[in-house]
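Researcher: For the annotation table, I need structure tokens for HTH marR-type domain-containing protein. Please keep the output clean. Sequence:
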Amino acid sequence: MASQEAGSETQTDALVLAENLRATLGRFVRRVKTQANTPTTSQSETLSLLDRAGPLSVAELAGRRNVRHQSMRLVAGQLESEGLISKMPNPVDGRSRLLSITDKGRAQLSRAREARTLQIANVIEERLSDKDRRTLEAAIRVIERLC
């Protein structure tokens, strides 16, 4: 019975840790994006996905972003009209087109990432002691093991 209680306690601890991590990281990311004036939008998330994954169809983008095909088509249309993505023939399926990030889109994405990195660096400089910075570095390594 004691080992069953210990297992249940470990599960509860993991659930509490998971919820605290989710909530804290979410608040942190939202705050950084707001303070860096780079709020998350469906457009920026789509650009980021295309930058990481390479060319994708509208259907693939919709699936990866967990949005409706029609919604993704509208976002893609906006990005294309701004010159941030381009369409190309799909070599596997001649009926569909692949979307890819353009140099202009990559530059916009890079500026947003740099602004957020600078915002984080400023907060680290302002609020963390050397000891806290070492703790943060260790915490990052632990979080990376969760990925």
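Researcher: And a one-line annotation?
Model: The radius of gyration is 20 Å.
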